[in-house]
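Tutorial, part two.
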Amino acid sequence: MRADTAENLSRQTDDAFRAWLGREDLNQFDPAAQVARVSPIFKWFKSDFVERGALGRVLEQFGPERYRGFLVSQRYSVEYRDYDWGLNDQGERGRNYRRGFFGKLF
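Running the prediction step on this input gives:
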């Protein structure tokens, strides 16, 4: 782990993007079905990715290397996966979060 500095922040950000997009529990790339299933964070914070370009460019640049040809082609549809709200609360209450039941907890 390194400290964030002006000199290395861009590289660290790029590395974090690659690591995050490489997590198959959060994002999946299926060339056979021509679909990229990505975290809904991309939809919720769409405006945050404007500086880097369209979602396709972000996936092309930072997606897993083994899917590079697929992502460069941009011949796929995008689906947004469900978000596991329990990731936000690792305490006792967080264990009960499930997709689709968020509203029933309160």
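The first helix runs from residue 9 to 21. In part three we will examine how such features are distributed along the chain.
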